[in-house]
Amino acid sequence: MFLKFILYILLLPVVLLSNSSNFPLDGKKEIIDEKSCLLVDALYKKNAYNYQINLDYGKCAYFRGDVDRAMAAYDRADIIKEEDAQVHKNLGDLHAFIGNIEIANSEYDKADRFGKDTIERSLDSLYSTNSFSMLARLNVGYDSNVKYNAENMQNWDVNSTITPSSDTFAKEYFRLNHTYDRDALTFYYYKNQLHVYNKNYSDLSEDDFTQVQLYSGPGWASESFDIWIPLSYTYMATDYKTYSQNYSINPQFRKRFENRLLLKVEAEYEHQKYLQWSQGDKDLYSTYFTLSKWFGSNYFRVAYRYLQVEKDVTDSPRVFIDRKLNEVEINYVLSMRKSLEFGAGYLYGKTKYSNLARFDIEDKREDTLQKYSAYMSYNITKSIGFILQYDNYINDTNYTPSNYNKEVLSGGMYVYY
Amino acid sequence: MIKILLIALMITFTFANVGKVAVVKGDATVERDVKRIKAYNEMGLLRKDTVTTQQGRMQMHFNDNTVISLGRESRFVIKEYLYSESSKKGSAIFKIEKGFVKTITGAIGKLMPESFVLETATTKITPHGTIWSVAVSDKDEIYRVLEGSVSLVFNDGVERKIELNAGERVTLKKSVDGVVKSFRKSKIRKIQASTEYENSLETNGAIIREDQDMNSGSIVNENNGHGNDPGNNPSNPGG
Fold first, then answer.
1. Shortest CB distance from A67 goes to which of B59, B147, B228?
2. Which of A102, A126, A150 is the last residue before a domain boundary?
3. pLDDT (tens digit, 9 = 90+) per residue, B217-235?
4. Contact status, residue A65 vs residue A24, Cβ threshold 8 Å
5. Structural element, H or E, at residue B39
6. H or E stretch at A96
7. Terminus-to-terminus CA distance in chain A, angstroms?
8. For B219, which of A199, A321, A402 is closest by C-beta distance?
9. Which of A126, A141, A170 is the last residue of a domain?
């Protein structure tokens, strides 16, 4: 027995070092695998009071994603041999993994105190003052009714209906996110976001659409809430001619409850300055509530948006600017496997305008938009995936030219880094 | 006969091990009835045992897999403990009189949190999660939640309840007679902004007006009905 134990102590580091594999919890390389852990399990059953065995038992529990068991094993190792750097280094890693940064630092301090060399802190690699993330998407698709597109509708006549014009398109989207966070223990951070979107039609190039949006502002985050108050600037163009420049303030609040429930509340004031039209400037006031929750592999989301739009120049002769929108959206997502996701959504929006729908009737214009959507995405890796999406829009209104149906089918890939 | 069986059952529960000392280092004792026994590895623990560490530290494992680690100069009482492995039901009442205790919740705390209570002189703690600790001294009590959450209820009769989530800490200041003078809740950690709560609907929800404002209407000249862009002159009837 004693000989076996001595052999173990001598051989285990060789076994561990010879079988490197990916650590399953945070993607870091760790020199440990299931085979060596089975050996550790057997030895732990025979000698549960040995420092090294408890330490290795804890590493194996950590490797298997069992934080409770790892914590208990490291605590035992700490009781048996308190002044050893290794156990405090491992406790530091474990606390860093579950997010207890302050305690992790205190364990790393002990490891430094008891060890000969300064240890490498997981926090250093997990945490950076300036963090960047990027998302890029490239899609191609088919639109059954391009002519009803955004606000670029110059040639409509109240007495006519629009003949649907279908076309194929390619669209690109890019988002860059930068967060400055001085250290892990302060609530304050500063975040910048850049969104670039471009859509080109094969034939109907006058409906090409480009948007660049920059967000920048301070935020405060803790374990359960996040507040971000950005100012934003948006540039929009149709057919590469400047269309509008917008300025907004958009406070956003997120609160995470237990059981993966998330509440998002946003408010926004935006001033839209139109450059292709005179006296078309407007002010937008909106609020947005979202409640979402995961139930195992099922995800549900309910969102409500209220938007009020007012003319910037009260006596502007433009019509259909002043309006109020109430919109509800529900979404369902099924995560079938880690890499495969299916989503479905329904949106209902009612817009009431302050202008009459026509001069020959008394009714004010009212639009009811319904949107049915579905998508399927497949992640090849953590960062790259494919998506196929279908959207169906149905707009009912007493303003004849705006009565339309529209189907959009698109597919493409995305890259996240 | 039934009485005999009941008495036998009670004796079994009274004298059955509710857990064991998983590991002990340094001076630690277990007070049982009028006896004081030096704690040792694998030592069985019974209901009503009082575990005291001097310069030692120890870890105890209970039958429902609750893990309790005690720091130095601590005094810990197993007031009640009942657990049935077959039905996965039970209840546990522990008390930390002084020192430091760290708890990794087992089956009772996970499946029946209301049946698991850790008392201090000033509060009753019910866990809704897995890893948390309490440090008790004459002057204060410091509660830290590392994973999950706990509820603290004050013993002073005033209906006060504190919910502590992972990464939160509360410090209670006590007067000489053990009454809570004040308490302060603070964070012991912070996570970055992104979270597993959000799926691609949230994170990829690009703010693209073209898609959002499908229904936002046209800009036309009021004076001429719904005609074309009048250019810079709004009174221009347009084409």
1. B147
2. A126
3. 333 333 333 322 222 222 2
4. yes
5. none
6. helix A85-98
7. 51
8. A321
9. A126
